[in-house]
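Weekly puzzle thread! Below is a chain. First person to post its structure in token form gets bragging rights.
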Amino acid sequence: MPLIQPRGLVNAGNTCFMNVVFQSLLYCAPFYNALRQIREKVAFSFNSRIPLVESLIMFLNEFPKCDTKEDPFDFDHTYDIEPFVPQFVYDALDRKKIFRTMKGSQEDAQEFMGYLLDGIHEELMSAVIYTRAVPSDNVYTLHSAFEELVHKEILECYMGINGTKVDATKQLTLESVPQVLVLHLKRFIFCPEKGIQKIHKFVAYRESFEISPQWVSRLDQHKIRNAKYELKTVIYHHGESAGGGHYTCDISRAPGEWVRFDDVDIDYLESEASVLCEKDDRHAYILFYQRVD
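Winning reply:
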């Protein structure tokens, strides 16, 4: 994936939840490379059956590559590109019924990303989304979250083959791992007395993540070895409301270089420490890890 010049996106009326998803996918190498391959092999058509995919290819074209002779850390030079409104993407989304009510109202970034990837899946029949929720009481790190996911569960009074009741063990394990691991941290919970409430608990995450062999089924452990990932994007939610607030994201544009996107505002982060630490004004909501082994 080439080094891409950062460019801001105009908040066209409560579209920050869209902007952070667009920016995150742009800097996700497998996603970028897939769009680039489609761009090179598929002819553009205004009557296309894949309007959403083609609009995202147009979106990709709006971000020029950095000259390899230029200093990629020269932000005074790289940030002179005017922010823009990706109207062609909005137009493609409007053709799909599920997106028509989203623009102009504050929505959930994770939900929008799911719908967006589903829309791409419908057009290309090639993407798969896996979702799995885990209890949060004992979860304080990503590692502990996965430990909870594969934790053995005792099923009492399970009906055995011979008709007698026995205690059985249930366990979920991984059969495969993706190139891009997208993790959604559960930030909202329904409370009967107060309605939907935000969960502020800090879940620690690191710049690297490795799939433990203990999380993989025995039959597939020979296929999944040393599955290592590097953190590429963190999407944050600001505010208290599930139906409101604001979204920003931190993206690793190149090794050792982190950029913060807040609609049209773009800031260079001095170190990844500010990405990994706990924040009072925003909470990590979606994490993108890319496989490196």
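Puzzle host: Confirmed. Bonus trivia for everyone else. The chain has eight helices and eleven strands.
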